[in-house]
Amino acid sequence: MDIIEELYGVIQSRRENNQDSGSYTAYLFEQGEDKILKKIGEEAAEVIIAAKNGSGKALTGEVADLVYHLLVLMAWHGIAPSDVRGELSARRNKKKNPPL
Ligand SMILES: N=c1c2ncn([C@@H]3O[C@H](COP(=O)(O)OP(=O)(O)OP(=O)(O)O)[C@@H](O)[C@H]3O)c2ncn1[C@@H]1O[C@H](COP(=O)(O)O)[C@@H](O)[C@H]1O
Fold this sequence. Notes:
It is a single chain. By secondary structure, the chain is mostly helical. The chain has a single domain (3-96), classed as Helix Hairpins (Orthogonal Bundle). Helix content is 81%, strand content 0%. The structure holds phosphoribosyl ATP (PRT). Phosphoribosyl ATP (PRT) binds next to helix 1, helix 2, helix 3 and helix 4. Residues 7, 10, 14, 23-26, 39, 42, 65, 68 line the site of phosphoribosyl ATP (PRT). Belongs to the PRA-PH family. GO terms for molecular function: ATP binding; phosphoribosyl-ATP diphosphatase activity.
């Protein structure tokens, strides 16, 4: 199992057991979708700032923050990482086999 699948599983378990004190993920689920969306906006802005500042290390950290919050949003909507992988594969296959 890769880290994305593993992290998604932890996020799902936090959603099911949202009494988990000290869990940031449980806190996000308790706050609701608007909070999750706000965090995604903030994290996306931080990705842009880190990219413009030209620090690869800072950018890696900000991308990780954004990916984590996207996974929380996906769990909120019941979208699994395999759904996104499937969508990307379908796009790749469409490019490889363009319609005649
Ligand atoms: N990968 C992450 C992860 N990435 C980022 N963050 C949190 O995202 C927050 C982003 O920082 P900010 O300063 O923007 O936000 P904040 O001020 O802490 O919070 P807000 O009041 O703005 O909501 C930090 O609190 C980080 O800890 C994460 N929190 C949890 N995980 C992973 O999720 C799993 C479950 O963690 P818990 O739910 O905390 O048990 C574990 O594997 C964790 O490693």
